[in-house]
Write a structure and sequence with these properties.
mainly alpha, Helix Hairpins, extended, 12 helices
């Protein structure tokens, strides 16, 4: 066994020890249902580590995610539903099957060609399993809404159901904004919710056409808002004031100064 295999085996042995009779009470108590929320959290921590650009943080967070995946899989192995070996073998077989241009005789000249073949292979797999398939695939409904909107638009575009350019999305964006204005006039909360959803979906598609992930763009904006808001709090606190005691115009004045400072110092 090579060093990589030894490291992987050691991690599995640690999971087995934690789940064993003399293991950790907390780990022994866990189930796939109780751990699934941690899977989401660890995936997001890995996501943020990649965004940070710190390779040491990425290394740590990917390790945490892998460990949790192994823990969940090991629990299923304990129940006899499937084994770790079966899981890894199935994954390997699937990847080989879906890359005939690498492991077979076929050839692919571009990433777009690979995606097209990937979709065809997935459709064939679904047919063999006698399940309904869609170009949209089986994207998790629990994905953040903007990310899901981005991915659904991406999938639909693979069969040509898309605008040809970002500029063509703008009239649709304006149309959706007018629909929001009408919904406001109607006073219907239900209609307003629907139209805001349509507007956000169109924004996600505009972002996609511009090559921007809307989820990441929004996260950056939220972080910028958080940073400025805290700086505003600190500004007033240094003056012996709390935000509740100052007027909106005073807050706006400080806010604009903070924005100007960021722009001039960047």
């Amino acid at each position: 066994m090579d060093m990589l295999g030894e490291a992987f085996q050691k991690l599995i042995e640690i999971v087995a020890r934690l789940r064993g009779p003399e293991g950790c009470p907390w780990d022994r108590k866990q189930t796939p249902e109780s751990l699934k929320k941690y899977l989401v959290e660890e995936a997001y921590e890995a996501y943020e580590a990649i965004n940070s650009g710190d390779h040491r943080e990425v290394r740590e967070e990917l390790g945490d995610l892998l460990f949790l995946i192994l823990m969940v899989a090991y629990i299923y192995q304990e129940t006899g539903l499937f084994t770790l070996k079966e899981m890894l073998t199935l994954c390997a077989e699937k990847m080989i099957r879906r890359h005939p241009h690498v492991f077979g005789e076929e050839r692919a000249q571009s990433a777009e060609e690979v995606l097209s073949r990937w979709q065809s292979i997935k459709e064939a797999e679904a047919k063999d399993k006698k399940v309904e398939s869609s170009v949209l695939g089986n994207l998790p409904k629990s994905l953040p809404a903007l990310q899901l909107a981005f991915r659904l638009g991406e999938r639909a575009s693979r069969v040509g159901f898309d605008w040809s350019s970002a500029e063509e999305v703008l009239p649709k964006l304006k149309e959706e904004w007018r629909e929001i204005e009408k919904a406001l006039e109607s006073g219907s909360t239900e209609k307003l919710e629907e139209e805001i959803g349509d507007f956000l979906f169109t924004v996600a598609n505009l972002s996609r056409k511009l090559g921007i992930n809307p989820e990441e763009a929004l996260k950056r904006s939220l972080e910028k808002f958080r940073r400025r808001f805290i700086a505003m709090e600190e500004t007033f606190r240094s003056q012996g004031k709390e935000l509740r005691s100052v007027s909106l115009s005073e807050m706006d004045e400080v806010w604009e100064k903070l924005k100007l400072h960021e722009r001039t110092s960047s």
